[in-house]
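Checklist before submission:
- one chain only
- standard amino acids only
- sequence pasted in full

Submission:
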Amino acid sequence: MLILGLAGSPRRGGNSEILLDEAMWGAKEAGAETEKIVLSSLCVQPCISCGACEKTGECAVRDDMQEIYSRLEAAGGIILASPIYFYSVSGFAKAVIDRAQAMWSRRYVLKDPEAPKGKKGAFIGVGATRGEKVFEGACLTVKYFYDAVGAGYDRELLVKGVDAKGAIRDYPQYLRQARELGRLLVSGD
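Returned file contents:
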């Protein structure tokens, strides 16, 4: 099984990416092949709402998202990790989510029987604030992203009150939880 990790932070080596790396390590320990894509290193334009995908199932915008589509289709599991920006995911993650409209169109508009399904999905979110509802918008967005790409929203690790780059290393319980998230995504326990 391929577990695809999507690193949504613009800050390399930040808290959400550290947790993603731990989760990927857990998935590898459980026997999965792993691949991480750092979204900030790619050029993914926002959806332009042209409607082409509703006719063809393919996005008309040609950029690095084409490679992400192929990796999303190949993966048996996906882990999206993102810092929380204004109660949602980062702009890099949101551009990819919005461009998943093409995969949604294949499933729900064109009713393509070959559209991906049966995948597992997990979300790792890290928020600097401690607000009661800090993850609600992001979790809902990720849930529908996973639906579009044929994955369930199977697991999550949501961490509040951690902001400084690398500060998550001061919380070994979250590192352990991330590794366990990756392992469980593969094993299904």
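Reviewer check: The mean pLDDT is 96.
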